[in-house]
Amino acid sequence: MTGALRAVNELVDALHHARPEDLPAMATRVAAGLGALDIELFLVDYEQVDLLPLAGEHDMPGEPVHIDGTLAGRAYTSGEPVRAGTPGDERIWVPVVSGSDRLGVLAAHVGAPPRDDAAFVRDLRVLAAAFAGIVASRRTYGDALERTRRRLPMQLAAEIIWNQLPPLTFATGDAAVAAILEPCYDVGGDAFDYAINGSTLHVAVFDAVGHGIAASALTSLAISAYRNARRCGLDLVDTCRSVDKWVHAQYPDGYVTAALGELDIDTGGYRRINAGHPEELLLRGGRLVRSLPGPTALPLGLGYLGDGRPVVAEERLEPGDALLLYTDGMVEARTADGEQFGIDRLVECVTKALADQVRPAETMRRLVRTLLSYQRDQLQDDATALLLAWDPRP
């Protein structure tokens, strides 16, 4: 049995009665079996600025590690192990990824060089994958993991929204979804959702009128109604009509703009309804091709004002294409002198990251860092974006 298998077996045996705060001790126990002096787990914070060490129940919190400009951050952003130090005192940073959702990094402190260096790194990657699964499954059983990831107190409106959201990133062999949501600790009316069902990848971005708890409650209803309709097997038109009905019934004075889409990952066919939302952007070959026409329906909750069914528009993607869905807060961020971030800067930031051939998740992380820097970390409105990339080529 390899060291990795022994370590995973130990983790599985200990996991049945483990609390989230027991994970650091579990990592320490399996370190020796792999040939490491110590193993430490770092989780990414909500803003994807720092990697924060997970402390045990009676441990003092360690120092955060900045993502930009560090070796640990390089492992996180690249998805590949990074090594530093000298033989006898080396540290190896390994990304901790659940599917394609980046959770943090695992840091192994190594003394004497292992006999089979390549096998040792493979074992660390297996262990990191095991911890990714454990973190993903244990995050709802206690608050230790959540507290570690938060650099600031989270407002109740944001708590409501984050509890509704799927992971920031998802990928199949042919398509990938990556999203961002800001301000992380004070978001109210923005949200996103996605789901894969057979060959159909569903995506949605929502923006409710208003701010604070009232907006987050309205958005929460819209997400739940969207998922309910989707899981009942309704098509895109009836899904839109169902959400519209529920929003109007529960919030007669409110409404939600939304972009609802369905991508056939086998063919690249993209079907969409734009309910009073900013137009999606089609990116091809590292540049903006065009904005997709919209809106094709009234905002959700205002359908009673119209006299027709929501219109489904169709687009045929080419291999390598990407679609950017976003809320108006992305382009309406302003400098102190009132200059807007604008669509041009939005496109420039995304296309530059795509030209650097980074993963969609890293593209969106760079976008949100640029946006926040533009407004000196003080967004005046919620800002959400979702990148949908399709590339079925081998």
Automatic annotation (TrEMBL):
Entry keywords, A to Z: Hydrolase
Any matching Pfam family: SpoIIE
Molecular-function annotations in GO: phosphatase activity
Domain (PPM-type phosphatase) ranges: 172-390
Protein's recorded name: SpoIIE family protein phosphatase
